[in-house]
Amino acid sequence: MSDTSSLEKALETVNKLIDRLQARPSKSPAMASSGDGHEGAAALREDAPRPSGASTPTKLNADAPSFVPQAQTLAQVAAASPSGGLTVLKPATSDAPAIVGPPVPPGGVSDKAHADPSTHVHPAGTPDPSAEPGPSSSLSPGDEQNFSKAWLQVGRVTEIEDHPNSEKLIVVKVEIAPGEMRQVVAGLKKHVKKEDLLLKLVVLILNLKPAKLGGVASEAMILAGEGPLAAGTDEKDDQRKVKVLEPAVSSSIGDRVFLEGGVPSDSPDKKLSSKVWEKMVPLLTIRGGHAHFAGKPLVTSSGPVFVEELPDGSTIH
Questions:
Q1: Disordered: where is this region (predicted)?
Q2: Where are the alpha helices (DSSP H) in the chain?
Q3: Are 89 and 72 in contact (CB under 8 A)?
Q4: Model confidence over 185-228: pLDDT tens digits?
Q5: Residue 156 in contact with residue 201, Cβ under 8 Å?
Q6: How far apart are CA 163 and CA 119, in angstroms?
Q7: Composition of the chain by helix, strand, coil, percent to 5
Q8: Rounded distance, CA 124 to CA 299, Å?
Q9: Could you read off the pLDDT of 117-156 as tens digits, one per residue?
Q10: Contact 239, 233 (CB under 8 A)
Q11: 3-class SS at 131?
């Protein structure tokens, strides 16, 4: 009889303990930051009513989870979006939630002709750690000062004619600003087809001293890249591959060309000294399909200046 009484007391104690545990409220992880940048309150029990005025995290898309706990790892965030509706831009840490965004198209940048081939992009939008860094800039203060004296600008070729006195030269009309034209005599006849150059955006240097080439006035220079001499060919054969520099496709007539990370010079020389230009030319080269000056990329406000189909180290003039 005493054993039965003890068992009943023990069962009663266990039942009370179970009731006490069931009555204790459950806790959920803290929610990620809300859309306005403030931390969300800790989640209430699922069966408890939400307080009046409490905000609901905004979904990024129909397939995305409504919130991302701060403690989630990169793998957990990716698993939370099986349809690929989210791209992890920054993994979660103990101090901040994961940052997610819209998906990146396969292959990253779609315009391969103007994408920087030295930058490899993962689908998550971060640089590929396995990609080798490009060559560092060797720009000196003196080089930068010389570059600031040159006036480089985008123009569009509107007319092309054969030079009357030369088999190597062409006479080109270029619009450098709305309604403003310059005549350029260029040694491109054997290297560039007229139909490929007509209506093309090009990069010019505008403040060289005007000159007469074969008796025809030239008021600017179209910059072009020149590849190395092919093996087994003679310098006199003129068989080097030549390609004109092209600004980013969204550039416009009149856009200035400057060094990446800087701004267009506000005080280029009215007439650039030939001695300054002679110092600049050896520093104009091609790397990774883009034009550089002393290792620094040339750009417009729309993106890099590129040169197709020429190897690294090709010269520009």
A1: 20-67, 97-145
A2: 2-23, 74-79, 141-149, 194-197, 274-280
A3: no
A4: 999 999 999 999 999 999 999 999 999 999 999 999 999 999 98
A5: yes
A6: 42
A7: 15, 25, 60
A8: 26
A9: 333 232 333 333 333 444 456 789 999 999 999 999 999 9
A10: yes
A11: coil
The CA-based angle 268-202-224, given to 5 degrees, is 90
67 phi/psi in degrees, rounded to 5: -155, 160
**Contacts of the segment 172-177: beta carbons below 8 A, 24+ positions apart:** 172/197, 172/222, 174/202, 174/204, 174/220, 174/222, 175/253, 176/204, 176/206, 176/220, 176/253, 176/254, 177/253, 177/254
Residue 91 tokens read as 């993994």
Full set of structural domains in the chain with CATH = 141-316 (2.40.50.140)
Q: Two tokens at 190?
A: 């054997």
The tokens describing 142, both together, are 């003196």
The torsion region of residue 197 among left (phi > 0), alpha (psi -120 to 50) and beta comes to alpha
Longest CA–CA span in the chain (Å) reads 129
